[in-house]
């Protein structure tokens, strides 16, 4: 968790330095509301996908919070609270190279990771990590980190391309 | 493009080769064992006649002259065993401690009685058990199929041995025995066994004759087979007051029988199998296998007090024990072991005092037993070569070793007398014999689950080939190519190969090498792969010309295919099969959400150009209105999606647990209402009314829908039936449930026809509804508008979707050249815009009511949940389709939608309280509306299929809606889409657009059927492959084989339903064109 808070903070500082996005109090409030809503949303989704409804509530909420932190939080920081930006990135796929791109890749990878993480739960290996929702948490984290790696590689590639064009 | 007849032919041909593939595989997978037709005879070289105590008898002197065998169907060990942990005032479960007399006997005369567990061999159906109990042999899995059609036993068995020995057998009870042993009993009182609702007829019938016949003393062996406990279990479950009543009745029966027993008589009381916690049996769970055995005789049975609490006897042990006790030869193919505890006492030798004599006496019995087993193994070894060489040799050695040891010991005994070292050696020898018999049994058990690898592989290859052909047709349906000379010749070649494979597997397999079949099949598979490849290229090319619109298979299709393959791969892991209900839920939800996201994306991408600026304009100041935002189409999609998946999630409440899933909470919904006790009557009422309300909702919803679109006007037979007969049938279903929920005493006092009348009325109504819709599949009403009758048609058309005069404007233009219109104005036709959908929905509702009846009241909310969530999913799907397509486009069916629907089917199977195990079959369905007494087993089998594969049937019926629904542009659809449709502009034509191009409609349905076939056969192929691959797996008979069987039957049901629906839609189309020609 800490790692992600830190990475989120890094993102935040980056943006404060680069683009000087001004965060107003109302934006903070909006972010908080959005994140709480997304927590509840992820919880409902987890239950709908087969998580136990009344048992393990804490664990399921933990997963929901983690998913929020890996998906909604970076997006809040990078895209702000304006839905228009979000739609532009997630629906129309027209993102700027930079923060929004990282957000796009990491959040999709994080959700996918959590999804794939549910696969080994029914297996009868009796491993401690097969208990709900540990494997999903691990999958989520791996997905997120993979997303970070992937997006950094992609960014590198894009910057190379840009530089090439500039040179010629 | 080719004609409908060719399409039907291709579909039928595909289904046929699929079924041939399944048959070949099944033949290899579920083999019967070879029956050795030798009989044991009295004179054998191994029996020692030296120490007969002047008592006659074959092989061994007989201990008892007479035997009374009381079989109490489904008498579990738990019922027999007295549990002393309950105190006087404790509430004891209804099945516990209800046979106190057994405990009394065990206490009073411990050396005269014995109680132990009596493990049955699966399958635990009565017929199979009787075979095992009389021949001493092990049944194989496939024998289970012949339960309802008893057949005579020709294998050597104890009944025939007794008759040869001149014993007279008297029989009372279950008439299954007479099917197995016709003409063997000198006096018989049979009673019908099939009506499981009838608790008392058989038992009271037996009890009436039992004591008088026992006292007549004209018998040597007396067999009585009671059914009450089993029927009570089937009907109420073990923990029900009726069970306690029944067991107490049995208790007094046993007491009376023991009173009239003579000194030379032995009494066996046992169950042929146990029962699950729901009171059913048939499978292989411990609860079902654990029957109880109680033996009693007025004379001393055993020299030592046996510690039977920990001993577990097999049911095959009954045959050798009984044979040796009565002094008849052990049947030839017996694999059981004489119960050693019963042979350590011999009234003539001094067994009471000398432990060595006891052991020696046991050895004598076991040795005879071992000789018989050895003889059987030897002759089996000669017939077939399946015995594993090494194990067989090891067993031979063990036997030889024991024999030589015995000789040495006998000489030692003569020379040295009864010393301690001889005793230990003797005990060792006894263990050797026991080990030999047990080892032989285990070996046979293993090899009788034997497989014909050639047939298995041929079945898999044929299946794979069929899937490829199916895929080829699915991809190539648009191209002329699919019916070109090349493909026709390949098709003919593959039918020849499939036929050849069939012959190979069933008729000539023994003399012909299957190499040629493999070779040709491989060639064909490669050919089809090339054809498919070519087809994909061709498609790319043709599309490529038109601005390169062709991409790789779309995003959702890739994910859907991936999920399908994951699911299929899951069949290869036992854990995924065990937890398949969760797995299917997960995948189905994933696919539903995938569709939700897809719809969301298409919805917003669509409006990219038009509305983006206004809706999402960054700098435009808008007044923030929460309601406006929340009723935005994107949010509506979210609501629909959430409702759909929440309702779908609720289905998990109806699943039952399979044995391997423990710990797990049983659902209360599969229990019949009569099982509720007096204290739970409030719950009982609530459940009944909720169920009835759900049933009512289901029918009411479809009725409202039809009414809204104007399909319930007029007075044709079809419409009248839908209007009146369907609600009537629904009410009858509700009444049937009410009758079934009556307390058992009240229910039994009703005559049989009254108990089943309601259900039979429902059957008749449903059959007549189906006949109506087949004769006249259109729910239309024509209103001729006269000139002098100025009906304001255009206004009405705009205000409600009931009237579509526009359609008929066009029609009139088209047809005006043919005939002259009778009226000035075009006639108004009600329900024209939903003509196809209504017919399909009509069938769905009708068959739906039948499924409600057969699944029983508990599961009725689950059908409602499933149908509402399917309906919502179709809404989401159609929102997506209408976002992507223009109004005039007639779109083909999306592969991913078929996969989603199929995955929902797979989960719905669990949602209807089923599991892919034989114990979880809901046998009650076979008796819905019938009072036992079936002449053949077709009808109950059909009812069982309707009950078990309700999900496949329901979804197969719903599938055509995927095509028609998107064209309806329902209210919900328009809420979910930003795009405005022609409905508002007054050009709404509904699914009547399909009528424009009959060819196209046929094409779409042909493709839809192919997609359904492809989906189910890929799943089946996975189940087949898993069963074939894991044929030596520990769990194969518990997990993989039942999974395969359920999948195979389910797939055939899906095939049939989707093919019938294809024909039905064609029928609707035909009669619609006839209808239109009238004008």
From TrEMBL, chain A:
Domain of life, source organism: Eukaryota
- Alphabetized InterPro entries for the sequence: GPI_biosynthesis_protein_Pig-F
GO-annotated biological processes? GPI anchor biosynthetic process
Keywords on record: Endoplasmic reticulum, GPI-anchor biosynthesis, Membrane, Transmembrane, Transmembrane helix
Please report the record's description of how this protein sits within the membrane: Multi-pass membrane protein
Q: Does the keyword Endoplasmic reticulum apply?
A: yes
- This protein's name: Phosphatidylinositol-glycan biosynthesis class F protein
List the source organism.
Patella caerulea (Rayed Mediterranean limpet)
Automatic annotation (TrEMBL), chain B:
* Residue spans crossing the bilayer: 12-31, 453-474, 486-509, 515-532, 552-572, 584-601, 630-651, 686-705, 717-739, 759-784, 828-853, 859-878, 890-910, 938-965, 1004-1024, 1044-1065
User: Which Pfam family, an example, fits this chain?
Assistant: Phosphodiest
Instruction: Tell me which CDD domains the record gives.
Output: GPI_EPT_3
Q: Which GO terms describe its cellular component?
A: endoplasmic reticulum membrane
- Give the location in the cell: Endoplasmic reticulum membrane
Give the highest taxon in the source lineage: Eukaryota
- List the PANTHER family hit by this protein, alphabetically: GPI ETHANOLAMINE PHOSPHATE TRANSFERASE 3, PHOSPHATIDYLINOSITOL GLYCAN
In Swiss-Prot or TrEMBL terms, this protein is called: GPI ethanolamine phosphate transferase 3, catalytic subunit
Classification lineage: Eukaryota, Metazoa, Spiralia, Lophotrochozoa, Mollusca
């Amino acid at each position: 968790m800490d790692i992600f808070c830190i990475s989120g903070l890094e993102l935040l500082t980056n943006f404060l330095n680069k683009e000087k996005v001004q965060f107003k109090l109302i934006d903070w409030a909006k972010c908080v509301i959005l994140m709480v809503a997304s927590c509840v949303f992820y919880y409902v989704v987890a239950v709908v996908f087969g998580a136990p409804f009344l048992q393990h509530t804490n664990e399921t909420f933990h997963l929901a919070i983690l998913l929020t932190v890996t998906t909604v939080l970076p997006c809040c920081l990078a895209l702000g609270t304006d839905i228009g930006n979000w739609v532009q990135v997630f629906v129309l796929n027209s993102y700027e190279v930079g923060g929004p791109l990282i957000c796009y890749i990491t959040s999709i990878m994080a959700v996918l990771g959590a999804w794939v993480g549910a696969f080994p739960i029914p297996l009868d290996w009796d491993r401690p990590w097969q208990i709900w929702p540990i494997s999903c948490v691990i999958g989520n984290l791996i997905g997120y980190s993979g997303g970070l790696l992937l997006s950094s590689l992609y960014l590198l590639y894009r910057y190379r391309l840009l530089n090439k064009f500039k040179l010629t | 493009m080719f004609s409908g007849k060719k399409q039907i032919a291709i579909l039928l041909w595909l289904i046929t080769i699929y079924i041939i593939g399944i048959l070949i595989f099944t033949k290899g997978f579920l083999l019967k064992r070879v029956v050795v037709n030798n009989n044991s005879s009295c004179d054998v070289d191994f029996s020692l006649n030296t120490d007969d105590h002047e008592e006659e008898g074959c092989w061994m002197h007989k201990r008892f002259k007479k035997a009374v065998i009381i079989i109490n169907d489904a008498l579990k060990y738990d019922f027999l065993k007295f549990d002393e942990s309950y105190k006087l005032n404790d509430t004891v479960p209804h099945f516990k401690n209800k046979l106190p007399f057994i405990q009394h006997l065990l206490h009073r005369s411990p050396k005269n009685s014995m109680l132990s567990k009596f493990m049955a061999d699966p399958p635990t159906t009565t017929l199979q058990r009787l075979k095992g109990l009389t021949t001493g042999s092990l049944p194989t899995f496939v024998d289970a199929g012949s339960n309802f059609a008893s057949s005579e036993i020709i294998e050597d068995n104890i009944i025939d041995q007794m008759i040869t020995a001149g014993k007279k057998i008297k029989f009372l009870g279950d008439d299954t025995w007479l099917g197995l042993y016709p003409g063997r009993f000198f006096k018989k009182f049979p009673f019908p066994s099939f009506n499981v609702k009838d608790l008392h007829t058989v038992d009271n019938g037996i009890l009436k004759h039992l004591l008088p016949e026992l006292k007549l003393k004209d018998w040597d062996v007396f067999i009585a087979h009671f059914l009450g406990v089993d029927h009570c279990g089937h009907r109420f479950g073990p923990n029900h007051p009726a069970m306690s009543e029944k067991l107490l009745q049995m208790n007094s029966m046993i007491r009376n029988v023991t009173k009239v027993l003579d000194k030379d008589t032995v009494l066996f009381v046992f169950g042929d199998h146990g029962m699950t916690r729901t009171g059913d049996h048939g499978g292989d769970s411990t609860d079902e296998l654990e029957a109880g055995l109680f033996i009693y005789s007025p004379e001393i049975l055993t020299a030592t007090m046996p510690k039977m609490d920990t001993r577990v006897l097999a049911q095959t042990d009954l045959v050798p024990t009984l044979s040796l006790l009565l002094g008849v030869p052990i049947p030839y193919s017996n694999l059981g072991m004489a119960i050693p505890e019963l042979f350590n006492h011999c009234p003539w030798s001094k067994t009471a005092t000398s432990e060595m004599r006891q052991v020696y006496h046991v050895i004598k019995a076991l040795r005879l037993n071992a000789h018989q087993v050895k003889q059987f193994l030897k002759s089996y070894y000669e017939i077939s070569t399946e015995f594993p060489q090494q194990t067989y040799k090891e067993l031979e050695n063990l036997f030889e070793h024991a024999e030589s040891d015995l000789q040495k010991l006998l000489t030692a005994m003569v020379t040295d007398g009864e010393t301690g070292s001889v005793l230990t050696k003797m005990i060792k020898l006894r263990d050797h014999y026991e080990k030999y018999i047990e080892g032989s049994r285990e070996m046979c058990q293993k090899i009788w689950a034997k497989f014909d690898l050639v047939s298995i592989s041929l079945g898999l290859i044929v299946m794979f080939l069929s899937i490829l052909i199916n895929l080829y047709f699915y991809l190539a349906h648009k191209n002329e190519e699919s019916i070109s000379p090349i493909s026709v010749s390949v098709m003919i070649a593959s039918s020849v190969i499939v036929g050849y494979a069939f012959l190979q597997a069933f008729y000539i397999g023994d003399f012909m090498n299957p190499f040629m079949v493999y070779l040709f099949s491989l060639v064909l598979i490669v050919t089809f792969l090339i054809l498919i490849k070519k087809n994909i290229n061709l498609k790319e090319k043709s599309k490529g010309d038109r601005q390169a619109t062709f991409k790789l298979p779309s995003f959702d299709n890739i994910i859907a295919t991936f999920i399908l393959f994951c699911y299929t791969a899951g069949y290869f892991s036992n854990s995924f099969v065990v937890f398949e209900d969760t797995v299917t839920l997960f995948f189905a939800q994933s696919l539903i959400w995938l569709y939700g996201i897809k719809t969301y994306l298409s919805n917003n991408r669509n409006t990219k150009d038009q509305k983006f600026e206004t809706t999402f304009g960054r700098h435009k100041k808008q007044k923030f209105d929460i309601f406006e935002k929340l009723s935005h189409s994107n949010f509506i999609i979210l609501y629909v999606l959430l409702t759909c998946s929440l309702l779908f999630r609720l289905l998990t409440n109806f699943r039952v647990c399979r044995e391997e899933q423990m710990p797990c909470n049983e659902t209360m919904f599969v229990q019949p209402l009569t099982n509720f006790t007096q204290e739970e009557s409030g719950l009982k009422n609530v459940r009944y009314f909720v169920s009835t309300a759900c049933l009512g909702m289901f029918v009411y919803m479809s009725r409202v829908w039809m009414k809204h679109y104007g399909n319930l006007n007029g007075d044709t037979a079809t419409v009248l039936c839908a209007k009146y007969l369907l609600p009537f049938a629904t009410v009858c279903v509700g009444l049937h449930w009410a009758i079934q929920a009556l307390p058992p005493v009240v229910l039994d006092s009703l005559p049989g026809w009254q108990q089943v009348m309601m259900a039979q009325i429902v059957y008749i109504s449903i059959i007549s509804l189906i006949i109506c819709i087949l004769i006249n599949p259109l729910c239309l009403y024509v209103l001729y508008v006269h000139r002098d009758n100025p009906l304001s048609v255009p206004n009405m058309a705009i205000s409600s979707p009931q009237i579509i005069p526009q359609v008929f404007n066009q029609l009139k233009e088209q047809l005006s050249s043919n005939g002259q219109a009778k009226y000035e104005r075009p006639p108004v036709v009600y329900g024209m815009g939903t003509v196809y959908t209504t017919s399909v929905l009509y069938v769905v509702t009708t068959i739906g009511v039948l499924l409600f009846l057969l699944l029983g009241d508990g599961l009725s909310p689950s059908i409602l949940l499933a149908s509402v969530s399917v309906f919502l999913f179709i809404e989401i799907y159609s929102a997506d389709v209408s976002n992507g397509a223009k109004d005039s486009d007639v779109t083909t069916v999306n592969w991913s939608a078929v996969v989603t629907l199929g995955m929902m089917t797979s989960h719905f199977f669990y949602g209807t309280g089923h599991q892919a195990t034989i114990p979880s079959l809901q046998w009650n369905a076979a008796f819905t509306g019938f009072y036992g007494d079936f002449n053949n087993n077709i009808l109950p089998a059909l009812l069982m299929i309707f009950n078990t594969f309700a999900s496949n049937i329901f979804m197969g019926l719903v599938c055509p809606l995927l095509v028609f629904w998107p064209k309806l542009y329902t209210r919900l659809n328009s809420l979910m889409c930003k795009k405005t449709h022609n409905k508002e502009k007054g050009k709404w034509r509904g699914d009547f657009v399909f009528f424009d191009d009959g060819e196209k409609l046929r094409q779409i349905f042909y493709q839809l059927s192919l997609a359904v076939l492809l989906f189910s056969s890929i799943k089946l192929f996975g189940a087949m492959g898993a069963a074939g691959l894991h044929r030596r797996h520990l769990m194969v008979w518990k997990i993989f084989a039942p999974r395969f069987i359920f999948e195979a039957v389910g797939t055939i049901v899906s095939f049939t339903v989707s093919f019938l629906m294809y024909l039905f839609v064609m029928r609707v189309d035909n009669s619609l064109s006839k209808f239109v020609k009238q004008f």
